[in-house]
Amino acid sequence: MSQALLAGISRTTEPHTMLRRFLALDAVVTGGNGLAYALASGPLGRLLGVDPALLLGLGLFLTAFAAGVGLVAARRRPNVTAVKMIVDANLAWAVLSVVALVVWLSPTAAGVVWIPLQAGTVAGFAALQWSALRAMG
Predict the structure, then answer these.
(1) Membrane-crossing residues (predicted)?
(2) Could you write out the DSSP letters of every residue in the chain?
């Protein structure tokens, strides 16, 4: 991604601030998603056609993951190794979501739309975070 595009998206030209903002956005969105899955696993499970117990487990995992991402984002200079682990985890989540959709889930129409949408969002976070990390040099 170009430096100008990253600066436009993050509303800053400072690479550390870009990275922190992309990590914070990831933490907020992932945390919200995790809380929704954990607190409303029954209704969301019916809506998406996904086992509520699976959504509950995923929700708890995502909430904890978001807290970790938030801690990394809160640092003035995020740890490079931690950021790389977050990027890798986001990419793994995106790939596994699509694999799950194709291989073992039998979602409703809403689930068929939601699962790739959230996978794409998470892959987008990974791309933004990786690009900001590279911009730091």
Answers:
(1) 21-40, 52-74, 86-106
(2) --HHHHHHHHT-S-HHHHHHHHHHHHHHHHHHHHHHHHHTHHHHHHHHT--HHHHHHHHHHHHHHHHHHHHHHHSSS--HHHHHHHHHHHHHHHHHHHHHHHHT----HHHHHHHHHHHHHHHHHHHHHHHHHHHH-
Exposed/middle/buried for 41, CB within 10 Å: 0-12, 13-18, 19+? buried
- Our measurement of the distance from residue 130's CA atom to the centroid of its chain's CA atoms, rounded to an integer in Å, reads 13
Domain count, the chain: 1
Structure tokens at 48: 């998406």
Amino acid at 37: Y
pLDDT in tens, 14-34: 788 889 999 999 999 999 999
| Whole-number Å distance between alpha carbons of 74 and 67 | 10
Domain extent for 131: 3-136
Query: What residue type is assigned to position 79 of the chain?
Result: N
